[in-house]
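Sharing a chain and its predicted structure for anyone who wants a worked example. Both blocks are below, sequence first, tokens second.
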Amino acid sequence: MKIAMLSPLSWRTPPRHYGPWENVVSLLTEQLVAMGVEVTLFATGDSITRGKLAWVCERPYSEDPSLDPKAWECLHIAEVFRRADEFDLIHNQFDFLPLSYSGFTTTPVVTTIHGFSSPAILPVYRKYNKRTFYVAISEADKCRELDYIATIHHGIDLAQFPYREKAGDYLLFFGRIHHDKGVHEAIEVARRTGIRLVIAGIVQDEAYFQEQVEPHIDGSSVEYLGSVGPEERQEVLGGALALLHLIHFDEPFGLSVVESMACGTPVIAFGRGSMPEIIRDGSTGFLVADTDAAVQAVGRIDSLDRRACRDEVGQCFTCQHMARAYLDVYERILDQRENHRPWGYYEDLREWDDHKIKEIVVKPGQRLSLQKHRRRAEHWTVVSGEALVTVGDQDIPLKPGQSVDVPRGAVHRITNPGDILLVVVEVQMGDYFEEDDIIRLEDDYDRCS
């Protein structure tokens, strides 16, 4: 199985600091490679993978202001679809824009919807709803207007988050600094409980930071660490008494919640979006309705077993679990393609008692088996691409508009020596047209009896 994995360009894959989508893409890619899947990662040129790396944009545009995001996104997406015929499946982790390219290829496209930034993007998802496959990252984030092939929660690499049995003496806010994430509410909870608050994350809303957060930072009761990279992350998460996730929006998933629990740190969260799917109220954290309830929950945090938090992640939210779920989706999609073969695919156009018409599409560099038929003759006409046809002991090159006869019983084969799809219209003539009339003499895919 050959998978093209399309990652965003905002940050490196995996990210140096912030970059939740890129982080998930990296975890999934590396785990699939470990499971023996051939994955080509389309990401920035400085990305790191054990799979094959393909890139057109050398650096992430969030780290290089000289790069125009839209220009490089267009080039990036176009590259994966230019090479679409090389893959069995394209996994789009790049939001809605790549869907507009999906009609230009027969390669199936799976899109992980990492939340909806705005209702304004829904028309794109609606248009391609029946043509592609959507995966939700939580039940809460599903749109009623769309069809989904699966819901797959994000997973993490447990080895990156050592379990810490004893809690530290501080509360933690971990994430982007924005009103949606409830940083000001975390500061209020810390003030009312008298417990120190540590804040870690990028500033996404500068005005919000200056007005609602920065005035409270004093280095003692409220400390701001800035963006925390992978090496510091485990220490910051594992040392907290609790993670405060007092969100003001319907969280699509919440990767930091799972990362916190993996370290043994329980989570106090407003019960919006996916939070009830991730947090077991009273076991791995507390789901609360407002700031008053969050303050009360802090007072009960010692009643929770930190080991239960770790065990929950191990059972439900690992990258191995995530990769197996996606592999199942890939296999289900590929199994649906009844007329697809390792060399390409065919479509039956029309059939009568004594003849049948079909279209055959052969991938670049691929060829059908060397074969013969007992009960039918064939006539092949090249529509597009170039063909090298073997009939008996002859090798016959064909261009668009040219054709060749294959008599009944003649040994034959068709090869695509070019770098684009070969399309052939085949007319079969005889009294039987089923696949079991194919006698394979030689085959690149070990299908000879």
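Comments welcome. The chain is about 25% helix and 25% strand.
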